[in-house]
Amino acid sequence: MDGKLYEAAITGNVSQLHELLREDANILDRLLFGGAVRENPLHIAARFGHSNFVREISSRKLEFARESNSQGRCPLHVASERGHVEVVKVLLERDADVCFVRDGEGRTPLHMAAMRGRLKVLEELVRVRPTAAWVPTDQGDPILHLCVNHGQWEAFKMLVGSINDNNEFLKLKDRDDNTILHLLAARAEYKDVKLLVDRLKTEEGVVNSMNVNGSTALDIAKAIRTRYGRFKIRRTLRKFGAKKGKEISRNRPKNRTSSKPQLEGSSNDSQSRDKSQDALMVVAILIATVTYGGALNPPGGVWQDDKMSDCSSSQCHNSGEAIMSYNFPIIYFFYSISNTIAFLVSSILILMLVSRSSFRRRVLKRYLTVMTWIAVSSMLLTYCLSAYTLCKEDLKREFKWIVGPVIFFGWILIIALLLVSMLHFAKSLIRIIGIKRLFDWMLSLLSRSRDSEDQRASPLHSQPELQQVVTTSSS
User: Fold this and answer.
1) What's the pLDDT tens digit per position in 11-27?
2) Would you list the DSSP string of 148-206?
3) I need a surface site. Which of 183, 204, 257, 398 has the fewest CB within 10 A?
4) Cβ neighbours for 315, distance < 8 A, ≥ 6 positions apart
5) Which residues lie across from 307 on neighbouring strands?
6) What is the tens place of the pLDDT at every residue in 222-276?
7) Gyration radius of the chain over CA positions
8) Could you tell me if 361 and 338 are in contact, meaning their C-beta atoms sit under 8 angstroms apart?
9) d(Cα 291, Cα 379) in Å, to the nearest integer?
């Protein structure tokens, strides 16, 4: 480029441009057909915001408006990135379709303005070519996604309010099938999430749209570290019918024409589930076997004879009774309870695993895990009590300082695990039935019990003869 022309473009000196054109009328033509990829005077003037110079150059050589610099950007890209709205207006007057030209990274002038937060430029571009807002980048990112990724919230709100097309603009997805709602939920932007959900409240398919990982906006909001933001966003999404990805997948009909990777993934999941079931079944059977033997043959054995005469009350016994119950009655009491708990819980585990339906629900899987903890803890407590009774007397004095705390903390652990299992079961019951239905069910039971009590307390119900007399007299 001629040095004087370059200087005129930097300063925006239109008079100097006219003087150069009088001296050499073909100076712009030589730049246009020079062949080298470089900036033309229109790029330079657009960078510095010289609208009059841009108007003069574009009126003489409109081809400059579509030429690209070393970064693949046209003058409208440069002006949009810098926020020179007057230059943008001039270029759009000359050729409005320049809005669709992409740079070397696949971005349009509208994308550049959105990434930089140039609100006035965005308004002008959308006003002249509204359809340009629908064009994604070459990487598949819609313009709203660019606004969120670059933290341009004012530009985001302006675009949401400017495009009126029955919310179709808000349904655009990126290459990972993330809607704008996914991105806002990931960034805990409660106000913007509420703004979108208010507009999309009739579009359940958008609120429950899943990305390539099968996650909805509600799933992403659940993973937010900020507890307060997560709670508010989840509450807002739930209010308008948002669901988790697993809830949607569970309600969908199975697709028999699924791809090979999906079939391989499902087979791997089923194999891992079968392995966990088999392992848990082995543990449950072992616990049931050990506790069953401990009940029939407790430590120390059982009496083999009957001795009911010529003996004190503490020495009298019947055959088949546990010797441990006479020598250590308190320890035998705790031994029997912990052994019975372990046997019953392991038996329930076996029955649930045999049915092969317990692992279909995540809540029941956790419930089975807690039950396994209870069975193992009870069996460990039973072992400690058995070991104590089998020690000789001099070791028992030292061992009791160990057995006492073990019994105490062991029972605390078992009670705590029982409470946890009950809480898990209550939560699963509430989720399945629903709080309102459960509350109505409890009220109906109370009303029925009260009605039955009233009927029993009434004199007509309690005295058949009086009821018959009243019926006869009334007739």
Assistant:
1) 988 999 898 888 888 88
2) HHTT-HHHHHHHHHH--STTSGGG---TT---HHHHHHHTT-HHHHHHHHHHSTT-HHH
3) 257
4) 307, 326
5) 317
6) 776 655 556 677 777 777 676 777 777 655 554 444 333 333 343 444 555 567 7
7) 40
8) no
9) 7
